[in-house]
Design goal:
The structure is a single chain. By secondary structure, the protein is an all-alpha fold. The protein has one domain. It has four helices and no strands. The longest helix is centred in the middle third of the chain and has 30 residues.
């Protein structure tokens, strides 16, 4: 078991529940439906990758240690960049501003998600190091 990945997964999942409830109850009254949809996408992807972190932590002992650690790091960076940028877009929209060129963080975060999944997959074919 890789406890840092498990801890991060549990923490991000708890935050996703909190953010999802906030979005459904408070934010829904403040933003238009299209902005709420962006926020919900962030919550959904945060959940997916929280579970990915939990799985990554569970398979740690039977897979390549280095690849698993890198996968966990990629999932964490992906959550912070992809989901964080989506949340930021919505919250900044409330005050009438935008991310501007920093909006590139969303697809960069998506690339980290993809890399995390590739590393998780590839770790299953390597010897434990």
């Amino acid at each position: 078991m890789y406890k840092p990945a498990m801890k991060a997964g549990a923490l991000f999942a708890a935050l996703a529940v909190i953010l999802g409830a906030f979005g459904a109850h408070a934010l829904a009254k403040l933003v238009p439906a299209d902005k709420l949809s962006v926020f919900e996408t962030g919550v959904r992807y945060q959940f997916y990758h929280s579970f990915a972190l939990l799985v990554t932590g569970m398979v740690f002992s039977s897979c390549s240690v280095k690849s698993i650690r890198l996968a966990a790091i990629c999932f964490i960076i992906g959550i912070l960049l992809f989901c964080g940028s989506l949340y930021s877009m919505v919250f900044l929209g409330l005050i009438g501003t935008s991310l501007g060129p920093v909006g590139i963080l969303t697809p960069v975060g998506g690339l980290f998600f993809i890399l995390g999944w590739i590393l998780l997959f590839s770790s299953m074919f390597k010897k434990i190091t």
